[in-house]
Each structure stands twice: as C-alpha cells, then as structure tokens.
C-alpha cells in the first residue's frame, strides 16, 4: 500500500495548512509508565536529553506549517503547562498563530471531565466553531516521531475523504494493542476494530496489520456533525476508535494514510514510549551511531524550551579518577567529575561524582550521583540525590526491595523511593 506522491492536489498545501487547526490530546496519565507519571501527564515526560514527549507532535505541526494549535490537557497538567508557556510562546498572534492550552472545563456536564478522545474535542466544539477551520487535525500527544502533516492533509483532499487516518504497519501479534484497520487496495477503510484478538491482515501481506497512529484529519463540518451525534448516543464511550469511526465507515469516505519514508518507501520511525521498557529502549536508540530518529537533522528540528546552562564539563585525568563519557549523550550543565559514563543519556544539570560508573542508563535533569556508585540499566528520575556507594542494576532481588523493576529488567528510581520527599503532601 503506497501513497501517490506525484498526484498534484487541486489546492496549494500552504492554503490547506493555513485553514487547519491541530488539536493535541495531552490529558492522559500514562499509567504504564508507573511512578514517572505520578506527578506529571505522560506528554510532559522528558525524552531524548532535553525534550518533552509533546515537543515531537508540536514540532511536527510547526515544521508542517500548521500554526493554529490547541493542547487539550487534563491529568496533572502543571508541568506540561509550564513547559508550553516557557518554550512555545514564540508564535505571532497578530498573524493568527497560536499554541493554546485548553484544559477540561466541564462545559457540557458539570459532573465529568473528558470521558474519551472524542469527548475531549466535543467539549471544545464552541471554540472550534468560532475559529472556523476547514480541517481539524487530531493528534495524540504521547508518541515520538517526525511526520509532515501537510502531506497527509493534501492526500486527504486529493482523495475527497471525510476522514483520513494515519497508520503504521505492525506485526500481527503487536496489532492486538492498537486500533486496526481493514482496507482495500485503494486505501479505503472497510473496518476498524480496537485491540482485536484476531487483527485483519493488510492486503497482500502476511503477518502484518495496519494500525492506527491516533492521527486523524477531519473535514471540520463533518467532525462537528459526528461529535454531536455521538454525544446524543446512549452508551457511547465518547472515543474516536471505539465509537465514532466504526459508526461512520459504511456511509462515508474514510481513507488510510500510511506513514512511510518518501524516499525508501519503508515504514518511518514511530515509537509509543508508554511503558518503562519502551521508554528506556527509545532513549537508548538515540545513542547509536546512526539512530533511526535523527535529532541532528536541521531540516526538521525538534523545538523545545531551551534552559540556559553552561557546557557539559569532564574533570580529572588520573588513572583511577578520569571524567569521561563513552558512546553517550550528555546535555548542558552536566559535570562528569572523575567518573565514567558509558552508553547512557544524561539530561541537563546532572552531576556524576568521583569513582562512580553509569552504564546503559537514562538520567533525568538535576540528578546528583554520589561517589563510588554503580548504576546499570536504570532510569533515574528528576532531582534524585543518589547516596554515596549506591549499587543499582546488579541484583534484581535487591533492586525490587527499593525500586520498581520492569519486565525487561530496567530499574526505575524516584526521589520518593530514596526517601527524599520531593513531592511531599501532608
């Protein structure tokens, strides 16, 4: 299944993006990330040494020339809101550009917050109507990828679709965790099932299914009509994948848009970092010589809040006390003081003190690792003060007594687990 990239849309792409509002669904807790989301929403979780997860769909919007963006927040949004206010205030309101925060406001039911993905959009329908878009781009705020949404919108218009769904190819066994589409040879969606036990195969493929990325392009008027109809339907869970999409397949034009690399035709990079193992793996991938996700690509930059920090520093050069980092990414403000960091990713303002070793680990901002520590295959949460002589990642039984250990053996360490009451509430 491919996209005809030579097909010329009847209208210029910049006209299409100018008439598009993007809505980023950023209200989810992300409970599979365990204690990492005890005090922040999943889209606010740090990623890649200096970013937050939500920076990726936001950057995709900016790089796709979509400058009207709403972020729908709900769960423990303070960290997310502060990040948006600090790092995403550079758009020009006088040119009709904005990144608006749209918290749950109980407009239609004073006893409930957002009930599902469709309800989150429905509860802001008055705002959307007032802004009069032609297209509404609905995005998940918790995935890591780089995507040109303008090309998807152009494909949507060229195929005269009512709804276009971004999709990726996944192995059949993994498809059970996704919304899965059955499509014909022209990419028209014939069925859509959430987390099926027996996922439908892609046309002409074996052991491969077509999974939804949670990315939708709607004609705005059509979206409003379906949201109102769904809100009036008893028993609806108010969700795009479970309710709205299955209800409209037979009557309207739904197209699948495969997320492929335009040069190779292969599946493009996309990661759901919704578990501790997936989060750790995705960060570790970035350290590779040629990672699938290139953060050094100036043609498609990832924008974020830039904290003003001094350069990273590596001090001492004695045989038993040499500050060095090997096969690693080290952010600004870090001090590697007579210690060794191997195959690890350090966020800003991390200090690793003398005679310590950090291996295969992700260390979030403002962490201080004391002397004579050994840390392996761990995620050290923000602001942890790791005591001198601490050993992590060498004995699973010992680790499980103090920390969270994932199925894949990744050790998650938070300040609370170390007895440090960073988020103490009386």
Any descriptors?
single chain, about 425 residues, alpha/beta, 2 domains, 10 helices, about 20% helix, Glucose-1-phosphate adenylyltransferase, EC 2.7.7.27, glycogen biosynthesis
How would you sum up this structure, described in words?
The protein has 426 residues and is of the alpha/beta class. It folds into 2 domains: 273 residues, Alpha-Beta Complex (Spore Coat Polysaccharide Biosynthesis Protein SpsA, Chain A); 106 residues, 3 Solenoid (UDP N-Acetylglucosamine Acyltransferase, domain 1), CATH 2.160.10.10. Helices cover 20% and strands 27% of the residues. It is built from 10 helices and 31 strands. Strands 1, 4, 5, 6, 8, 9, 10, 11 and 12 form a 9-stranded mixed beta sheet that branches. A 6-stranded mixed beta sheet has the order 18-21-24-27-31-30. A hairpin with a 5-residue loop joins strand 9 and strand 10. The protein is globular. The termini are far apart. The model has no long low-confidence stretch (mean pLDDT 93).
Question: How would you summarize the topology of this molecule?
Answer:
Elements (H helix, E strand, L loop, with lengths): L12 H6 L1 E6 L20 E2 L3 E2 L2 H9 L4 E6 L4 H10 L10 E6 L13 H6 L2 H7 L3 E6 L2 E3 L3 H10 L4 E9 L7 E5 L5 E6 L13 E12 H12 L8 H9 L5 E5 L11 E3 L3 H10 L27 E3 L1 E2 L2 E2 L1 E3 L2 E2 L4 E3 L2 E3 L2 E2 L4 E2 L4 E3 L2 E2 L4 E2 L4 E3 L1 E3 L4 E2 L4 E2 L3 H7 L1 E2 L5 E3 L13
Parallel strand pairs: 1-4, 1-6, 4-5, 8-12, 14-19, 17-20, 18-21, 19-22, 20-23, 21-24, 22-25, 23-26, 24-27, 25-28, 26-29, 27-31
Antiparallel strand pairs: 2-3, 6-11, 7-13, 8-11, 9-10, 9-11, 15-16, 30-31
């Amino acid at each position: 299944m491919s996209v005809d990239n030579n097909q010329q849309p009847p209208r210029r792409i910049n006209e299409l993006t100018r008439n598009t509002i993007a809505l980023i669904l950023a209200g989810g807790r992300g409970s599979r990330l365990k204690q990492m989301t005890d005090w922040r929403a999943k889209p606010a979780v740090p990623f890649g040494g200096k970013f937050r997860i939500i920076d990726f769909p936001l950057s995709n919007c900016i790089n796709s020339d979509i400058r009207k963006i709403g972020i729908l927040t709900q769960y423990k949004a303070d960290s997310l809101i502060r990040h948006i206010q600090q790092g995403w205030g550079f758009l020009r309101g006088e040119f009709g550009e904005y990144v608006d925060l749209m918290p749950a406001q109980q407009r239609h039911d004073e006893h409930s917050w957002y009930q599902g993905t469709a309800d989150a959009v429905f509860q802001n329908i008055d705002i959307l109507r007032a802004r009069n878009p032609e297209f509404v781009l609905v995005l998940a705020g918790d995935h890591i990828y780089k995507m040109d949404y303008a090309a998807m919108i152009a494909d949507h218009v060229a195929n005269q679709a009512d709804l276009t769904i971004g999709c990726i190819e996944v192995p059949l066994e993994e498809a059970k965790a996704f919304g899965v589409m059955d499509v014909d040879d022209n990419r028209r969606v014939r069925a859509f099932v959430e987390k099926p036990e027996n996922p439908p195969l892609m046309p002409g493929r074996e052991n491969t299914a077509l999974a939804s990325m949670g990315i939708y392009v709607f004609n705005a008027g059509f979206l409003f009509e379906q949201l109102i109809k769904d809100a009036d339907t008893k028993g609806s869970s108010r969700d795009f994948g479970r309710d709205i999409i299955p209800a409209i397949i037979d009557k309207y034009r739904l197209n699948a848009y495969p997320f492929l690399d335009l040069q190779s035709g292969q599946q493009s990079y996309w990661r759901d970092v919704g578990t501790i193992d997936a989060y750790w793996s995705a960060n570790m991938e970035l350290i590779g010589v040629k990672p699938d996700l290139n953060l050094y690509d100036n043609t498609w930059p990832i924008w974020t809040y830039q904290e003003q920090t001094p350069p990273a520093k590596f001090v001492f050069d004695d045989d038993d006390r040499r500050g060095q980092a090997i096969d690693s990414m080290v952010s600004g403000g870090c001090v590697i003081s007579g210690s060794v960091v191997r195959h690890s990713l350090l966020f800003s303002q991390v200090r690793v003190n003398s005679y310590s070793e950090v291996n295969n680990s992700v260390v979030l901002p403002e962490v201080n690792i004391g002397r004579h520590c050994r840390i392996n295959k761990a995620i050290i949460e923000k602001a942890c003060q790791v005591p001198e002589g601490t050993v992590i990642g060498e004995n699973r039984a010992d680790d499980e007594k103090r920390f969270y250990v994932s199925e894949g053996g990744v050790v998650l360490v938070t300040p609370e687990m170390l007895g440090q009451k960073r988020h103490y509430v009386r």
